[in-house]
Structure formats: C-alpha cells, structure tokens
Amino acid sequence: MLSKKATCNSHGQDSSYFLGWKEYEKNPYHPLTNPSGIIQLGLAENQLSFDLIESWLESHQEAMTLKKDGVLMFKELALFQDYHGLPAFKSALAEFMSEMRGNKVEFNPEKLVLTAGATSANETLMFCLTDPGDAFLLPTPYYPGFDRDLKWRTGAEIVPIHCSSNNGFKITKQALEKAYNNAKKRNLRIKGVLITNPSNPLGTSMTRDELDILINFIASKDIHLISDEIYSGTVFASPGFISVKEVIKGRDDVSNKVHIVYSLSKDLGLPGFRVGAIYSEDDLVVAAATKMSSFGLISSQTQYLLSVMLSDKDFTMKYIMENKKRLEHRHRIFVDGLESAGIKCLNSNAGLFCWVDMRHLLKSKTFEAEMELWKKILFQVGLNISPGASCHCQEPGFFRMCFANMSTDTLNLALQRLNNFVEADDTNCTHRRLSSLPKWVRRLFAFSSQMGSSPFAFLSKVRTLDKTQHPCVNALNPSGLAVSS
Question: Aminotransferase class I/classII large domain: from which residue to which, for each copy (predicted)?
Fold first, then answer.
C-alpha cells in the first residue's frame, strides 16, 4: 500500500559505501570500551580544528546565548521563518566564500539560496534543471551519495564520464564527448555536467586547463554546469584551488548556466548544523530554488550564530590558515603510514581523504576481488573504507580512505592494523610462491631467515645468481609481491 518511491530500490542504500557504515555502527571502535572495534575511515569529516571554533564560542557568549548588544534575540529568531534567510547571515556567508577563494571572486548575497546542507542544494538544483528522465554527466570516480542525492526523488539520470588512472583521473575532452554520445544513444536528454572541485573521492583540485575544457564543452552543447565546491577550503598544497566562478569571468555565454554548491560541513567541520547554499547568476534558478528551499530551511538560531562568527574576520582568516596547515600535516602522516605498508595513493592536495591504490593486493584484476579485499579489511582488519566500485571507478583496486575524522592515536592504530594485514598477506603470498621454486632456492631462503637476514633482500640476490632465471624467482620483488609481466 506504499508509493513506488517508498518501495523502489534506487536510493543506493545497498551500496558497499553504505553497507560499510552499517557494519561500523554495529561495532564502532573505542579505545577503552571497544578497542577491537571497526575504525571509521569512510566518513569525510573534519575534526582537526574544533578547538579553534570552541575557543571562539567560549569568548563570544553573547552569540551563544542569542544576544545582541546585551538584548535577547530569542523572540525575534524564534518567530523568523522567511525562506530567503537572514540578510546578515547571507552577507557573512557570501564574504566567507570569497575569502575561501582568496578574494579573487565576489559573491552577491542576493544570488545565494540557503539550503539544509549540500545534499539539499544538489537535489534542489536537479529539480530546477531536470525533468524525470533527463540526465547529468558526472566524472568518475564520484561520491557514492550522488546516486541518492541526485536521482532518488528527482527521477534524473546519471551518465558517467569515465576517467582513467593513466592521467590521474583528470577530465579530458575525449571522455566528455564519449559520455555525451553514449547518453544520446540511450535517447537521454543531457541537461548538464556536475563536478566536485576539489574532487571527492580523489582529493585533487582541478587545473585551469580542465576547467576551460569543461566550460567550452557546456558552451558548445548549450547545457549547464554544477560545480560542487564544498571542499574549497581544504586545499592545503599546490596547485591551489580555482573556483569555476573565476574561470567564467567575462564569459557571458555561460554565466547563467554555471551554478555553484557550497556548504560549511567540510571547511568548518559543521555537518550537523546543516548549512548549504546554491549560488547562481540565473534569476529564474534563484527564484525557483528559493521557493523549494522552504522544504529544507536552516534554523534562524543557526543562521544568527554563524552570521556573528563569519563576520569576525580575525577569526575566519586565522581559521582558514590554521585548518589548512593541520590538514596538510595529517595528510602527510597518513600518506607516510601507507607508504610504510607498501601502499601508494594518488598524489593529492585537498580534501579529507586519499584515493588509495591497493591493486597489488587483489587476487585478480576484477571487482569481485576488490569486494573480497574490502570485506577482509572491514571484518578482519576492522577498518571501514570505501571501495572504488561504490564510486563507479572503472578500475578495480582503488579505495577512498578518510584521515581527518579521528584522533592521531586512532589514525596510527588504523595504519598499524593495515600494515599488519599487508605483512601477513605478503607472507602468505610468498609461502605460496616459494612452493614452486627450485629446492635449492627454498633451502637458502629458509637458511637466510634463520640467520636473521631479510629473506626478500635474499631473493633479490637470487635473481642475480640464478643462471636459469627461473620464472618464479624472477616474479618476486623485494616486497614479496608478484610483478606482472
């Protein structure tokens, strides 16, 4: 007796991305009460700079108690319900967005639409720009939640723009055209392209060349571009962040077709405050989105508190600079820890996560092997990570791992667990491969181990000594992993 929407399976809740969360919630790690529990590496939260915000709150009790110049604002805020939002907050948010972009661009508060988080902002734009069955192109890999946020209630379709590890998953003109033509073959009406910049899950900011390719593409096809820039304040290293708003300066042909989504969930680490926004130069989009925002408003108390906080320029500048330093430091700890375990990741400069390459740990180059590895890491190692398949990556063996939502001690424990798993996997793989080696090699390997020298360094020498160049010997590298021919 329920509606089709209530009973359909298009929400995406069965994705491994969400299933990992469910397992974590059943058995969450706690250093004292549950030290063997699952550590959450699947949550893109920024908990590194809470102390800066808490310090500000402690020194601004008037804002906390909803007072202004000693006068209680409670009644005014409790009765306020205009879905256009508090003018003071919209102005403060517009200025903060400019600060995050190095004041290279300006945002008109009148063209901002407030929403209950970026999820609501993206869905609202889908409602404004598509009818059921219309399609948006998204570069892969992309945030797994988009299958829910963009499609579930709107009826819109997602067509992937398949990007490759060969060039660091950068968007190319060829990939855009191929995706566009594939959509046309399916008789889909393409209404636009949606990107995350910086990318979730890659943790990379887009170059000027990539953005130019995108702008020229949407101009040639006469379609829209949505730029989700909720991670703009997390860019901690070169090449820096370039907003699409900066790229379209002077481009009157596309100015009303480019729409920006922003949020305070990642940059300020306030996902629970549910603060998002749409910025558009298209007056019709702004008007329609404002009407729709009445279904997901930000509380007036939240708007008031944040209007005071974001208007404090000394605080915002200090926060932006210090938060980036902390993200860079935490990123380095994580990358170094992965490298110690023999694991590499995509060279990244932004975000709260790394795009980790574990293809060498797969039993085969298949998504079935990726799922098998994911289940081992989730249930045996006790780490919740997001498999590449959930992000619609075409190449098995990549995973998104988050590093900013926990203490340093918890992160180090996660890295130690992963390192132990890789070492055990290396040992098992080596024993399997040793069984096919010549007997004299197996004896020398055992002797080397007994004498306390590195068996893998020994195998490296064996490759030089073995005149027959036995293929099994030649297939072993110093890390004990098979080298593909």
Answer: 39-418
